[in-house]
Amino acid sequence: MPEAHEQEDRKTGFTAGANLAMKVPAPLYAETVAFYRDVLALKELKGDAETTAFAFGAMTLHLDCCPQMSQAELWLQVTCEDSRTAAVRLHRSGIRRCDGIEPLPEGFDGFWITNPAGIVHLIDAAGPTRQ
Question: Which of 26, 83, 105, 131 has its Cβ near the most Cβ atoms within 10 Å?
Fold first, then answer.
């Protein structure tokens, strides 16, 4: 049934999302925000003590203050046309879900995975512009 798998793969339609999330340890959060705001002079879209967003070219960079983390991590958004098809394709490719990594909003059509190098990806069926 390779033909069925090929049709399924085309339906998945993975694309890069519009969001990057940098999870920053709490002691480095203010300094990291200042770096993007004051040193690089990126346009700040929103900000508070827990999360700040910057225009990052065609994307949005979200800096999230994470007291539980000891080092920064970069998390990526990948969009797809159908989350069920995406889950099947990823599972078939040996990629495991890691839904417990961070709660998603009620009714959110997506899930978490990590790539083989351990980088977290949000698989999001809502499309590339979700903020």
Answer: 83
